[in-house]
Amino acid sequence: MTNSNSANANAKPIRVFFAIFPNKTIQSLLADQAIYLQSLCAGRKITKRHIHLTLLFLGNVLPNRIAELHRIANHISARSFELNLEEIRYWKHNRIVYIQARQFPSELFTLAESLTNHVSAAGFIVDKRIYRPHVTLIRDAIRPVITHLDNSIRWPVDEWSLVQSLQTDKGVRYDTLGQWVLRKL
To answer: In the prediction, which pLDDT does 6 show?
Structure first.
């Protein structure tokens, strides 16, 4: 299903999502973890620049509605927080290996819920499943991973983004369409 309106039904939709991307230090730590995990379970590691935590996946949206997503995001107020990533998990049904926190800060859920509610109220189609925050590190894993982290990864989160996922002849590319700063604690 497409997040669209009839005014511009002939425009080609773009694939978008709201997400949190780590700073370069955390990105490198997570990329190193992906390399290690790939040695255990095979599959495809997520490239360093694509590592993120999705807040809200919208899928296909008409380009003329991106400004509306910006207006919605401009009205969302949320506080910064820290993620303490400490568990490696495997989802058999979609064969991904991911990292997550044992306990997520309430600020993360507040931000994701606020986005979902405002975007849905504006007529965008949103997934009704329960939000399960995670950072995918491996896709198409051949076997489950049974391992643990020696040290947790502490990820300070102070901004979030609207991102376009663009399929190119060289693979997927993420283009940032907007960024918003979280209020300091």
So the answer is: 47
